[in-house]
Write a structure and sequence with these properties.
- The N terminus is likely disordered.
- This protein has a single domain, classed as 3-Layer(aba) Sandwich (Chemotaxis protein chec).
- Helix content is 32%, strand content 23%.
- It is globular and about 45 Å long.
Length: 150
């Protein structure tokens, strides 16, 4: 797995089995890229049946933009409550493991194995059966590069 530690990006793909307590390890290279955080955030993806593992710095960056909005704007409050209710702040143990709540594991169909896919600023947590085989799809890659102007 490539981690991109020099550039501070989360890239690569790996799979881990959930242990008997339903924990899994965040790879040490990715923890290093994230600045060896004591905790991370996990929330369901809004469009796909996977979870987003968000480093604290990325979450803080997104929250800083939200803090500029009116504190008591009812529409903002409602949306922030929905985000807060669906999100977990998870402490990493000394081995870099986290335990995602059963509700979120069930949402993403994570029963025995989790496929972790680096998505530059966050990590996507997938049921391996929901992903294409781990091969390079040049057409998909080209479309992604063109779409984001890379």
């Amino acid at each position: 797995m490539s981690t991109g530690t020099d550039s501070g990006v989360l890239v690569g793909r790996c799979e881990y089995n959930l242990d008997p307590k339903h924990r899994f390890t965040i790879p040490s290279g990715w923890r290093e890229v994230m600045g060896d955080p004591k905790y991370v955030y996990v929330m369901p993806d809004g469009k796909e049946r996977c979870l987003n593992l968000i480093p604290p710095a990325e979450m803080e960056s997104r929250l800083a933009k939200l803090r500029e909005r009116a504190l008591f704007d009812p529409s903002v409050t409602k949306h922030l409550q929905a985000i807060g209710a669906a999100t977990e702040q998870l402490t990493l143990d000394v081995q870099g493991r986290i335990r995602v709540c059963d509700k979120l594991l069930q949402f993403a169909n994570l029963t025995t194995t989790v496929a972790m896919v680096g998505s530059v600023r966050m990590i996507k947590l997938w049921d391996p059966a929901a992903l294409k085989p781990d091969v390079v799809d040049q057409t998909e890659l080209n479309n992604a590069l063109e779409s984001v102007g890379f």
